[in-house]
Amino acid sequence: MSLSSLRTALTIALASSPAFANRRTLVITLLATPVLSTLMLAAVIGSIPGTDLRGAVYAGILLSAFTSVMSGTNATLAYERHTGVVPAALFPRFGTPAYWVAKPVLPLVSAALVSLMSLGAVFFMDPARDTHILARALVMLPVALVCGAIIGLAVGVFSLVLSDPYLVSNVLSGVLPLTAGVAAPLAAYPGWLRSISQLLPMSWTVDAMRTGGSPLPGELWTTLPWVVLGLAGVFLSRRRLRDGREASLF
Q1: Closest among 196, 194, 192, 199 to 223, alpha carbons compared
Q2: What tens digit of pLDDT does each residue of 71-125 get?
């Protein structure tokens, strides 16, 4: 993977990223939406009696970072699917490694910046100024970002075989705030729901944020099935293209 090929792939990804379409969209994506989301999250969690507000808000920021990378990567691939870039990249050798590596880079960078600003804002608004919980959140942030990038790429590729390229991403974005245990720890969940939640992304990271433990290897195990799903999407998409069913990708 040469530097020039990676530069070209990043240029394509930048042109395909909805968040970087113009300055207004960039400001809304990087500033307005995260600030409003954080304030709304704090208001909702603060209304629940007995909830650790500080830990829950930090956990919510981590989940938001994951969701942002995942949905941003998926949106980039969805755009390139409609412009014909992705089908061309599936042949003859699944595209260059630089092409696929570049897809989550911009969503990851923007989510990292937003998350750092959000964590800093919460820390300075917190009267206790608890540096230990802030440090824990900073350690967990790379896990959330990398898992979001991997799963976002897998979801985006698998969505090539679906009529709605945003279906899986939207369902995950709606389900994860419940299953990750942001508002309440998983230990308080019914046994059947806790078992399901531990099979989905971010539950181990959010739990580690609360307890100080390690999100690994649990988070890796929850990521692995999505990688398999992405590989299945590549296989099915290539087979459809070989059969002359290009229209199914659009």
Answers
A1: 199
A2: 889 988 888 777 766 656 665 555 567 777 788 888 898 889 888 988 888 888 8
Question: Residue 72 CB: number of other CB atoms within 10 A?
Answer: 28
Residues 6+ apart with CB under 8 A from 226: 150, 151, 154, 155, 201
> 42: closest CA among 64, 60, 30?
60
Q: What is the domain range of residue 91?
A: 3-249
Tokens representing 228?
């398999």
**Global pTM value:** 0.84
| Coil/strand/helix, residue 103 | coil
Peptide bond into 97 cis (omega under 30): no
Domain count, the chain: 1
CA dihedral (79, 228, 175, 72) in degrees, to 10, reads -30
Q: Judge whether 76 and 38 are in contact, CB under 8 Å.
A: no
Among candidate residues 65, 91, 235, the one with its CA nearest the CA of residue 154: 235
Mean pLDDT of 125-135: 86
